[in-house]
Amino acid sequence: MDVELLEIRQHMGRFPPFDGLSDDLLDAIAEQVEVSYFKTGSDILEFNETVNDLCYIRSGAVEVYRRNGELYNRLGEGDIFGHFSLLRNHKVSLPAKAIEDTLLYFIPDAVFQRLCEEDDHFADFVELERPRLETIAEQQKKSNDMMVTRIRKLVTRYPVMVEASTSVQRAAQQMSEAQASALLVLKEGSENPRFSFKDSEGQTWQMCGILTDSDFRNRVVAEGRSPQTPVGEVISSRLITVQSDASVYEAMLTMLRNNVHHLPVVYRQRPVGVVHLSDIIRYETHSGLYLVSNIFNQSSVQELARLAPDVRAAFVRMVQEDANSQMVGSALSTIGRSFTRRLLEMAEVELGPPPVPYCFMVNGSMARNEQSIVTDQDHALILSDDFDPKQHDDYFYALAKIVSDGLDACGYAYCKGDVMATNPQWRQPLRVWKAYFQDWMANPTPERLLHSSIFFDLDSCYGEDVYVESLQDLIAHTAPKSPLFLAAMARNALNRTPPLGFFRTFVMEKDGEHNNTINLKRRGTAPMVDLVRIHAMACGSKAQNSFQRLNDISKTQLLANGMSDKLSYAFEFMCMSRLRHQMIDLQESRQPDNNIEPENVADSERHTLKDAFQVLSNAQKFLKFRYPMPAQRQGR
Amino acid sequence: MRGIRPRQKITQADWNGYMAQRARKARNPAIQRFFDTPLPDPDTPIAEVPMVALDMETTGLDERRHAIVSIGLVPFTLQRIKLAERRYWVLNPSRPLAEASIAYHHITHSEIAQAPDLEEILDDVLAQLAGRLVVVHFRNIERPFLDAAVKARRGEGVLFPMIDTMSLEARLHRQTLWARFRRWLGRPPVSIRLHASRERYGLPGYQGHHALVDALATAELLQAQIANHYRPETPLKDIWC
User: Would you identify the CATH topology of the domain A3-127?
Assistant: First the structure.
């Protein structure tokens, strides 16, 4: 191999998508590369010109434009362009210009096509945004903690074991005593070496079967066997086990594949426990379960506040174990709701029972089950229509104050917009709330809705759930028929736009400006939430969670086919990026925030984030078009 | 190489006339073929000239005492450098190789022991150069060394026009009024060596002193020089020598 080719190879091998290529493919590229120099300001690709190469920036910087001259992307060392045209009609749709003296490597089309055919990762990378986001979202789903956690972690106790000669009655008694739903049946000897083991006293046993609750029903009672039947006669000869170091995921697959609900866990050949399908389900959905039960065991605000570090630790653990954003969001929201509930219980103990029924409503991210570790409190009180301010308001103000101060002590900062039950405007009987919503939807202006849009994410946290449900019904019924309202919401949703992407260590804005950091909530997840909410309201969905809303939207004709999937991949990726950076902040003992610094963004992450921004940006354009502002009304 | 200055340009030679005359007189068939392949007309715009970047590593600086160790060449045009068509040969210099030059060129005794003499590959080299304008960085190595080596083997030498990226750089940085003013002030002259010249155009740093790497580096440098200081329409006669 020629030395200079190694240099080309080494350079390309450092940048995606080439970093994942085999050595053979990298050689094939380096062999065929053509080189060209472009002076600052010179055109590299002109609109509609024929392209036959993929362009790779060896040094310098390049800007890519849309046909209308709008900046599409700014690229630096190691970036590629021209692949969209190669994948389509070989005509330049996005012209490119050198903005610094630039040296380009041209990879001929034939090599490019070969790379696409032979390397899936490369093909995913160069195709338009969807596949890449999809691949990564899928990978995240697959690599969540079920893949890495060993099944032995779910084994909480030693298995109940009986000899094969034991009567089924005696075995049933033992199971009841141990509150076990399955037991293992053993006999002496080692005829079946696969299942034989030595116990602590050196005696050789072999496992010959498992007996479960349902076996008693099916194989004993239903068949009319005597209680004295030895268990050895009723067990099935088929025995499926799992090694203790297998992953939770493997264990789950084993159960599904063999259609069994109980699985003996063995270390080498010695049984160490039995897991049930429900153990796995519980593990998957309630990683924060222990924390929640702990919250309900505390009896003062001080004690609750002491749990704050545990919340952060649980958060870091979930992100490290590659939980997806929905798992993290719903776990943190559950924790937040538990704090709120516990505070309400404590307040009721202190203030006495409420004079009229009420519902404590949560709004914003908690209502959507999308909380992160950086969050403030948004809530309101919906009171019974029997509420009499003179008589009852002191009670509810005191109640709201206890909860709000308590949440602040536990790390949920006061809401800057004063969306809290302590605000008299947001502590009202149900009929007033209904009037609020009707007014917002009937007489919308973008300015008025700016501060009330947070109420369109609403869920009950404690008390009379039906109050919130009736408001949700009202919205689902009225919003689809209120084009003016949807248009005003859409206009507000366009106030915050994503950046274009990254360039070197900067965030690239659409006007070509550079910034050092980006607030990923303000510029990514929040505008996405706004956008999804509008479509969801337009189709009468009552879901609050953005993923569920997207799911509802996908069942309608509102968006082009596949669009809601695209949005949910983009949303998932932006959420995960934000969570990961918050985790890094916590690990490095910094105050976590919503900012990410481009130098901390890995190459692959920045490409995918850029794709996500692009999806969001396109969806925003569609929003404007889908919910146009009707002609200005005269007079006001 | 320090201390060596490009020699004064002698005259604007009538290269096409010289080539035609050599083609008539040549006795060696390979050399005859080389001179018989027509060169672009001196008025051809540089953007239309087929070129080949050439670099040689030698055992020293004097063509009478030293020999060629390796040759690298990369065909190119102003638009594209065609790496796929690159050629590279390690040669047996048949003269002792100083330890210092081994460290310098990264070529070892064992590589050279198995390498051919220039004689064996000369036809191939000439065929690659024929009809293309040769581009070098500092022609006072490549030109005399190749001429002397061919003369020693075939009885007649080869001289042909070249574009010298170093002398293009010297025109900009050594022969201007500003350069003379700097000299008068006692400032060190601007470096016109390959690496330093490339840096001025924002070209990446390569590991130098490998004939093929340097040939590629020279081709890139010429593209940058033309893009920055000339035009695609600049006639060949303005820049060859």
Answer: Jelly Rolls (2.60.120)
